[in-house]
Amino acid sequence: MPIKTIEFAIGGMTCTGCATGIAKQFVGKPGVIATDVSHPAGKGTFTYDGDVTSKEEIAATITASGHYQVTGEIAPGPAEGTATPIPEALTPATQASTAPRAGTTDRPASATPSAELAGHGPQGTFFDLVIVGGGSAAFAAALHANEQGLSTLVVNGGLPLGGTCVNVGCVPSKYLIRAAESFRHAGHSSFAGVQPGQPALDFAQVIREKRDLVNQLRGKKYEALLADLDHVRVVAGWAEFVDTRTIRVQGPDGKQTEYTGLKFIVATGAAPLIPAIAGLDQVPYFTSESLFEHEELPESLTIIGAGYIALEIAQAYQRFGSRVTVVQRSTHVLSNQTADVAEELTRHLRAEGMTILTGAAVEHVATDGPRVTVRVRGSGGTQEIVSTHLLLAAGTRPNTGTLGLEKVGVTLTPSGHVQVNAQLETSAANIYAVGDVTPNPAYVYAAAYEGKLAVQNAFAGAGRATDFTALPWVVFTDPQVAGVGLDERGAEAAGLPVEVRVLPLSEVPRNVAAKDTRGFIKLLRHADTDVLLGARIVAPEGGELVSPLTLALKGGLTVADLANTFYPYLTQSEGIKLAALSFNQDVAKLSCCAS
């Protein structure tokens, strides 16, 4: 075990508390044996195990808070007490001469102490942080790392910058959902005095406009931001780990380059799962990544899967005019939800003409040219579904297959996800993972939260754990399905005494006035303390109701608190109050605005 000691000149300390705060960052940090930080002397002495950590990591931890700067390394011997300043920048030639050898964390012996610290620059091949992936989680991590002055490399391959959400997921799907909704509303009315017209659809133009929106948002929210990130460099290519400190990146031109880093974050996301179905290799099919580029509206569309992605697409295309059939192996759609939620949504989707088969296993697919035949087996026997197009929407798989994670000691789950603890650490000490590549909830806002948290834990020793207790979610069908916190199954699994009330939207004045009473609001409370445990909503624009309930859950509010809060009359949020009142009153017998 090579025990080493390093002494840094540290700027930015204004009091003894600053010195104490710096020292606290190293409590429990692997490899750091002892620290001695002095405000009056403006320096810190660190004793460490060179096999576990390095002086570069120690310097990065000090600067990661943004309050302090390592201004130089104090040389031992006769010159002790004088710091060699760190140059503001190195020329490319100097950076190349001080770059680390592949698989090592120490600089060449010929490098000067000042060059060792300054060699982190974004034009070299050594970085404080290397992020593999270019989606929302990766960008959140890069933005926070840039704020902390950490030299950061982002390696992006596959989808363009922005990853799934902006390119093939959230943005294009929600655009198409709203376009389909507009088309349907133009041809349907719930009011006897309003006669709908016969709208015209240019589906190819819808897809082209979707494409323009994706390009616009990717440019504004991702590509344009790069110019302001002084400490971040982005390269295109596919990364593979060489060892725990090095990755090899193959660029689009086939050229391979090795990069070394102190810390790594794997943020490669997930891709559509291609299920093992007999005959599938002979049949053309879409996934959510390819369907949204097809400018011809399918005459008929069979969708395998009934999760949120499948159902959002199914309703949009049904409303555009496709004849849609959904095939689901589980007993109900949205198999991770309780039956009452799934059945309520299914009823309204079927009312729009969609065919939904549940408890149906796909046995075989085949094509005779213009048609695709899907053979399914259910409780009633075998049947064949014939359509012009096939969409696979049976889930996702993590993008871990080519990263070489196993050879550097990173544990994967049976599904191929990167196993992480609550601090987003993998089984390799300096490698973190965030976003859809992990088993954590697969939402873009959760991924962004994880990206920032991983940087804080990796460089500031924050030790912060992920907390998804009050994580809201929305399925953008119509009616929407939304939720936060526990449902009945979650409360039972946690051993909590729970009471549940379900308020039909026929009791909410806003919905009655709008002649749209599809759905309900369900609240769950702790039977002994009245504290809100969770909520499930099926409602038009129901996603707009979940945020106040999220704040209530996060703040530990009781159902009585919800009932005793003001809500504007004839807003849908008034339904939250009525649902809360229903624990103790029959709201059907209350007058308007009653408390």
Automatic annotation (TrEMBL):
Annotated segments matching region Disordered: 92-119
Cofactor entry: FAD
Gene Ontology terms: biological process: detoxification of mercury ion
Keyword Kinase listed: no
E.C. numbers: 1.16.1.1
Region forming the signal peptide: none
UniProt keyword annotations, A-Z: Disulfide bond, FAD, Flavoprotein, Mercuric resistance, Mercury, Metal-binding, NAD, NADP, Nucleotide-binding, Oxidoreductase, Redox-active center
SUPFAM superfamilies: FAD/NAD(P)-binding domain, FAD/NAD-linked reductases, dimerisation (C-terminal) domain, HMA, heavy metal-associated domain
Keyword flag Aminoacyl-tRNA synthetase: no
GO molecular function: flavin adenine dinucleotide binding; mercury (II) reductase (NADP+) activity; mercury ion binding; NAD(P)H dehydrogenase (quinone) activity; NADP binding; oxidoreductase activity, acting on a sulfur group of donors, NAD(P) as acceptor
InterPro entries linked to this entry: FAD/NAD-bd_sf, FAD/NAD-binding_dom, FAD/NAD-linked_Rdtase_dimer_sf, HMA_dom, HMA_dom_sf, Mercury_reductase_MerA, Pyr_nuc-diS_OxRdtase, Pyr_nucl-diS_OxRdtase_dimer
HMA domain span: 4-70
Binding site for FAD: 174, 436
Cofactor, how bound (note): Binds 1 FAD per subunit.
Chain residues that bind NAD(+): 305-312, 395
Disulfide bonds: 165-170
Catalytic activities: Hg + NADP(+) + H(+) = Hg(2+) + NADPH
Subunit description: Homodimer.
Family of this protein: Belongs to the class-I pyridine nucleotide-disulfide oxidoreductase family.
NCBIfam families assigned: MerA
Function of the molecule: Resistance to Hg(2+) in bacteria appears to be governed by a specialized system which includes mercuric reductase. MerA protein is responsible for volatilizing mercury as Hg(0).
Protein name: Mercuric reductase
Provenance organism: Hymenobacter roseosalivarius DSM 11622
